[in-house]
Amino acid sequence: MTTTIPTHQPQQPAKRLLIFQETKDVTNKNESIYQPVNAAGLPISGSGPQMPSMLDLPLRLLKALTELLNHNKFKGWALLGAAPYHDVSEEGKFFAVILEQIRDPVSEKK
Question: At the top level of its lineage, which domain of life is listed (predicted)?
């Protein structure tokens, strides 16, 4: 009699989709800032959409993402991809961002 040992599939890291909107800074109308439209992010499954190089993004957006990832809420998360996001139902300039959880913040506290 042959016994089959079930193979354990490694769990996929958690991923979230965030959308940022480019808006004018109220304190300096010549500057643009990037505000998260969905601050908690939308959980996504699988590899997520293909994204072009993050190096094509505006520097101000990269700065905003750096600030976001330095907050406690997103400790242990990394930027997986980002690209312009086109929504015909809304006016404005948007960017889609995919974050991936690289460390469990609960296990980091131990």
Answer: Eukaryota
Closest CA to 13 of 108, 102, 79, 73: 102
Cα four-point dihedral sign 63, 68, 72, 78: negative
Instruction: Return the closest-CA partner of residue 47 out of 80, 2, 87, 70.
Output: 80
How far, in Å, are 5, 63, 86, 102, 103 from residue 69 at the CA level?
40, 10, 24, 12, 13
The helix (run of H) or strand (run of E) holding residue 68 is helix 59-69
CA 63 to chain centre: 13
